[in-house]
Amino acid sequence: MSRPSTLEQSLLYNAEQLLIEVSPDYEYRLLILEACAARIGGFDICEYWKVFEIEVDDSSKILDAAERLSMILSMIPIPASLILSGLSREPATISEKKKNGIFYTDFRLAQFVAEDCRCVLERDSKIVDIAAGSGILLAAVAELYYKKYSDSYNQWISECIYAFDLSEYALRGARIALSVHASSVDAIRGMCGKWRACDSLLADDAGFPAFDIVVGNPPWGRIKLSLHSFVNKTTENYHVYGSGYDSFNHERFLAERQDTLNYSRALKERYSLLGSAEPDMYMAFLQRAISILKPGGHLSYIVPAGIIRSLGTESLRRFLLERSEGLKYYLLDNKANYFEIDTRFKFVIVSHKKAYCEKRRCAGFSFEICKGENLAVKRTEAIDFIAGELEKIRPDLTVPECRSVAEKDLFFKICANGTEWKDAWRVDIAREVDMTNDRPIFHARRSEDDLPVVEGRMVQQFRFGAKAYVSGSGRSAKWVPSAGSIEPQYFVGPDDLNERLLKRAYMQRAGYCDIAGQTNERAMMSAAIPAGVVCGNKVPTIVFPGEFGQRRLFFFVGVTNSFVFDWMLRRVLSTTVNYFLLFSLPMPDIDLQGELAERIISLSKELSCMGSEYYTDRQMGKLRAELDAAVADAYGLAFSDLELLMRDFPLLDRRQPKLKGETRATYTRDLFLSIAEERFCKIKGTYTTRERAGFAQNAKAYIPTEMTELSEGGAE
Questions:
Q1: Domain limits at 687?
Q2: How many structural domains is the chain composed of?
Q3: How far apart are CA 126 and CA 214, in angstroms?
Q4: Do 490 and 632 belong to one domain?
């Protein structure tokens, strides 16, 4: 995954270059930043250095650099306190950031958190960050405070701001940021007298009063030490997964791993929300933060999106509801480059008002998907969820990612017209062979009785051999689109499979590619897997036992490849279609012996049996559109519902011809909705007209972009 530079890094580039030019030494950098804060705030920097016992050898050079830096800061559209916080962060390698769960807070997120706290920010509000880092969240709130109550700023920071962090250097950076509007060194000294360099998760309650406001972006990540992370931390050369390990200090590794296990146990004993699995740091911090918040107090916390969608965080979601008088979830992704991580990564800002008593706790929460703009975070449409209603369709209270009230209503409607199917159908789901752990039994040349290994990239909608292996291995392996017989990379011998797995391999079953994404061309891709092949771990397979097994298999394949099911999956998906997610989505609540189910099954079988004509014959598109309309009917949807959900698939038809005057090809949508408007509205309307125009341009529907070369209808 790519690690893009953040917007903040680009905005601070000139300031960063000046500091590097003056001196690469981190201690010297902090002296310049302190002098810069003094210039802006108006306090005496020499007195400051004396009070905090900081030795300075060449103050004139530092002051000159601070003056130059101040001029650069004045041209950056970010408050100076937030800039200084960002510039004072301790240097850290990628492996160190990953190991410690460090995701430095972007200035836009800091300002968003501050705005979330605005309505409760009073003259005497006590505020804390128990994993403060260099203090950017506290500084953002302080910026708002200074605008509201500038006359009492010195007194407020002296009496009401608390910060805790493991690093003395981080707290020094926080001190710099919060000094920007201070005019008194005594006020700064009073503020820092309450700060502590400690592990706030295990610290005693001394120094933890009941707070009016708690803000935070705590460390994210599970508390464990792998050999991979240990080697990257202790050697100069970055180790790549899958490669061998050079010599390393084995005794030190075992000692550090034991220390990590001991720490994990200590946290589990103290924080009930961590459960029995490997604990995640942010969950402990969130529980701790709420515990020090006074009744009626406000919390604004930046955490991973797993808080609203993971099976393992159900207890945390219930914990928040039980203790909230007001609860909001703001969902964001990293497309605006807040963090040095993949742009697809999602996270949540939790806004929580602690209940005064159990009777006043909230009955639900608000959810909102926010968008990053150049210099701010933009709010969109807030959606209210009633916990009792959500629990009926999502028993674990996972939150569907709906962008509007209309999408929420559609999600609830589909669920209301659906039914649970895992237990009712007695399905047997499994991962057959592991592409890493079982590698010793794989071989490239096929013997007479060997079984081909089906990998995730080979499965597309209704197709199980969509890619053919050419050459290479791992990430450098070359695969090409295929419409013919299966061409795998690996084979396994029947003697290398246990009796249960061998029996499964000679059964027809459904399989699906579990690597997916909300913004992919299509998220769900399932197919009927024939007897005589074995599937890799990225292709979970499902066996449907009983006399109706084959009907259920093709009903499953037909429904899961539909736009309706795909749209539902996108509301709850991250990057993997795990069992938990798959079984949480309902099948249509219809009689599988009825006429509508028979039509879905018949279409699914016909599509599954097609050969190379799947990509060249227009019949495939017509069958798929009819199947999509039938599935929509089975879920009890109206035509307007289909128009709404089809907005969720902007990557379709990228290599198909566009209609005149339009910027994007829409032939698949137009074909589906043309059949739907005739089925649901009994008319041939706008979409029928559009479909005919696309047909005249030789457009073909339902052709995956990467498979267009197999079709005669693609436009280069």
A1: 428-710
A2: 3
A3: 9
A4: yes
**147 and 165 belong to one structural domain:** yes
DSSP 247: -
Virtual torsion, Cα 535, 536, 541, 545, nearest 10 deg = 50
pLDDT higher at 608 or 5: 608
| CA atoms within 13 A of residue 9's CA, in its CB half-sphere | 11
CATH of the domain at 295: 3.40.50.150
Single out the residue of 316, 308, 227, 305 nearest to residue 279, CA to CA: 316
Same domain, 256 and 133: no
Give a yes or no: residue 653 inside a domain: yes
Q: Is 473 left (phi over 0), alpha (psi -120 to 50) or beta?
A: beta
Scan for tokens 């053919």, then name that residue: 468
Nearest to 188 by CA among 14, 1, 27, 47: 47
Confidence of residue 204 (pLDDT cuts 50, 70, 90): confident
Helix (H, G, I), strand (E, B) or coil at 215: strand
3 state SS of 683: coil
**How distant is the alpha carbon of residue 591 from its chain centre?**
37
Comparing C-alpha atoms, which of 472, 582, 570 is closest to residue 520?
570
Closest CA to 579 of 431, 680, 391, 370: 431
84-93, 227-236, 254-263, 700-709, range with the lowest pLDDT: 227-236
611 plus 642 within the same structural domain: yes
Note whether residue 357 is domain-resident: no
Query: Are 233 and 148 found together in one domain?
Result: no
Rounded CA-CA distance 322/330 in Å is: 19
547: tokens are 């006399």
Same domain assignment for residues 177 and 264: no
236 & 298 share domain? no
For 439, the token pair is 């590698």
Please return the burial class of 27, using the count of CB atoms within 10 Å of its CB with bins 0-12, 13-18 and 19+: exposed
Distance between CA atoms of residues 103 and 36, nearest Å: 25
CB 180 within 8 A of CB 80: yes
Q: In this structure, are 307 and 259 located in the same domain?
A: no
Q: pTM of the full predicted structure?
A: 0.90
Q: Indicate if the pLDDT at residue 491 is higher than 70.
A: yes
- Please say whether the beta carbons of 564 and 462 come within 8 A: no
Interval 370-419: pLDDT, tens: 999 889 999 999 999 999 999 999 999 999 999 999 999 999 999 999 99
How many alpha carbons lie under 13 Å from residue 409 in its C-beta half-sphere? Answer: 9
Taking the C-alpha atoms of residue 584 and residue 570, their distance in angstroms, rounded to an integer, is 13
Helix and strand totals (H; E) in the chain: 29, 22
